[in-house]
User: What shape does this take?
Amino acid sequence: MSDINSPAARHRSVPLAGAPVVRRGGQWWLITGTGSILATDPVFTGELDRFAVAMAAADREVARLRDDQAAARKKQTGKR
Assistant: This one.
């Protein structure tokens, strides 16, 4: 669960939520059955950036909620 703008994310392939796009070296690529195409439209790539940031935030929140639920279950078990 890393930010797409982090230095690590800029230097590796980062697939986006099972979509046929991947971020490589700070650029978005559309993946097809026969190869990949560099996405160059700034409006489109900006939307991909915003979506990736939103997905990362959602992933972090889901992880936090799971941790909270696990802690609550542990606390309930300890009370019995």
User: Anything to note?
Assistant: Strands lie at 14-15, 21-24, 27-32, 35-38.
